[in-house]
Design a protein that fits this description.
about 0% strand; globular; mainly alpha; single chain
């Protein structure tokens, strides 16, 4: 895709969304750089901003292969491998890759995008908290600092109206941290904001679905634990529907359980039958997934308790 075509896409999309140049480029580049991009006069440095600008407008920057440097692509792949190792339960390997990536950035690689810096900071913070090296409060501080690298005006009461995929991911993790700290309303506000943006503005529905499944799981859990059963059921059903675009996802059994748990407590006509089906589907799916990936160690017990208590 040539520079003029990319610039026109960005300009047209920005105007269609009533997004100002200032709002779009805030924390990413200068208005001058954005103007050069939109006018097809972007230099090499200007082009490095294009993936983040596209993502903030709800479009995929990863599909524009010729604007990602080789070094930056290498860093991105290393971070993905570290995330995969953590996902598979190999924390030692995840830390090994993280340390190697950080060392290469410090010593060899200079041209690293802000998005990849954010990804690495977020991963380091998550691994450190999971290993009890830092508290949830410290993790939250690191997550919010990473977000402010691009969304410079972020506050929990001032959420960015337009976001890149990375900014959406960080906000979701920030919401989880607030939930752990006993601030569910803040978590709900943040996750609901991200969910609305993903549903309304992200054109690539496969990209949106992958994140919405996790968002819906997190929201359904918070809604359920705070007694907002109707909201829990609604958002859990959204998550279950979104998974149809992507196939089986790690949080799907948990989302199904959350929905069943709230259906039992709401107990309107048809709720118990739906809860029973979801419960057994979640139990079966969790057993299948446990053979291949790391699953929640307590979910099976929670599901069985729900079955026993309600004589399903």
């Amino acid at each position: 895709m040539d520079k003029i075509a990319i610039g026109k896409i960005i300009s047209d999309r920005r105007k269609a969304e009533n997004c100002t140049q200032e709002d779009l480029c805030l924390g990413i580049c200068s208005i001058t750089s954005l103007s050069r991009i939109e006018n097809g006069k972007a230099g090499s440095r200007d082009r490095s901003y294009i993936p983040s600008l596209l993502e903030r407008l709800g479009m995929s920057g990863d599909s524009i292969n010729d604007i990602i440097s080789e070094d930056d692509y290498t860093v991105r792949q290393m971070i993905r491998k570290a995330n995969q190792a953590d996902f598979l339960g190999d924390r030692t390997e995840a830390w090994k890759i993280v340390h190697e990536t950080r060392s290469r950035i410090n010593n060899d690689i200079r041209n690293v995008s802000l998005a990849n810096e954010q990804r690495l900071i977020v991963l380091e913070a998550e691994l450190s908290r999971q290993d009890n090296k830092i508290s949830t409060e410290e993790e939250l501080q690191k997550l919010e600092s990473a977000l402010r690298m691009t969304a410079v005006n972020y506050r929990p009461d001032n959420l960015p109206p337009y976001m890149t995929s990375m900014e959406c991911q960080i906000l979701s993790k920030i919401a989880i941290a607030y939930s752990r700290l006993g601030q569910p309303e803040t978590a709900i506000k943040i996750d609901s904001h991200v969910k609305r943006f993903m549903e309304l503005y992200v054109e690539d529905k496969m990209v949106a679905a992958n994140q919405l499944i996790y968002l819906c799981y997190n929201l359904s859990k918070i809604f359920g634990l705070t007694g907002k059963y109707n909201d829990c059921i609604s958002v859990a059903r959204d998550g279950i529907n979104w998974h149809k675009l992507t196939g089986i996802q790690p949080t799907l059994p948990q989302t199904m359980y959350n929905c069943a748990w709230s259906l039992v407590r709401r107990n309107e006509i048809g709720d118990m039958a739906e809860a029973k089906k979801l419960t057994y589907d979640a139990l079966e799916l969790n057993a299948i997934m446990s053979k291949y990936i790391r699953v929640s160690p307590t979910l099976e017990k929670h599901i069985q308790k729900l079955i026993d208590e309600n004589r399903f």
